[in-house]
Amino acid sequence: MKLTIYIVLCLFFLCKSVNGFSQEKKDSILSYTPTSIDTTYVKSDSTKIINSALKIVPVRRRSGLIATIGVAGFSAAMLGMWALSDDKTKGGLVAGANIGAYGGAMVGLYSLWYKKYPQSKFHFFNDNKEWLQVDKVSHAYGAYMEGRVSMGLWQWAKAPKNNAIWFGGLSGLAYEAIIEILDGYSAEWGFSCGDFLANMAGSALLVSQQLAWGEQRIQMRYSTHPVQYPNDAAHVRVDELFGKSKLEKLVKDYNPQSYWLTVNYAAFFKNKNLPNWLPASFGYGGQNMFGAFVNTGAASGLQRYRQWYFAPDIDLTQIKTNSDMLHALFFVMTLFHFPSPSIEFSKKKFKIHWLHF
Fold this sequence. Notes:
- The protein is 51% helix and 14% strand.
- By secondary structure, the chain is an alpha+beta fold.
- A hairpin with a 2-residue loop joins β7 and β8.
- It starts with a helix and ends with a strand.
């Protein structure tokens, strides 16, 4: 049950990262003007070192080589974790699930995406002003979520405590980092330092708490909600950018998405009367985003704006149960914001949502 949940979650968020990445880069190029961003490609001494090391490899094959090295390195780490696990059966299942998910994602990415586009020397791409930085928070959440699930599985397999924290907790960073490296060798895009730092932030939040407290007192959560776009022009632009199907929009459209920091304040106090199942959540999102840097096409006249939220949340893992299935289900639900009333601050005004998904 836990392995099934892990594979489904990782595939969903890897697909979300990949589709989000493809949409970000595609729209960045289409909407690029010299005034929309300060620096698109950035050269540095580090790019010279990396490119020098790979000179012997034909440019068109470098993405394939990087993907192969990434899978081999990650597989070796997972096999090492299996060797350290006290429960070899569970450890083997966890290692196999990690290698299968990671390897399958890399093969699919290279075959279906990177192989079809021109390759180049390693370079950087500055996308820090895209999507009101909602994409950056999404990157942090993806690395946090993937690492948290992987860490939980290694704990289930009875791997040594610190090894489970470090290797499991950093799995999300490993998943996401290889995408950025592959971007660095794509002629039309590049390595995004902003995305990579966001990935690091998500993994750091996870690992540091586990080392300090042995639990996640501050969790990252995700939610999505129906959006009423302001006019017909916005609907036309949404279909152009994100596709017409609900599934495509779920993965690609940042407008309905909110990301939350959920704080279990009761864990910071010794007062046992505080409800540890009722944490407080602080959310962030953006609205009227119909282009990476600026709104383009039929929605060019609409104003983009940020949204800040405060809401109560629910931590179902505080319910005591001996059922492995319920335990796994409650754990998965802590990755998502529990629907509840919320207060929104945007455009210098407060707004109340009686039920925020």
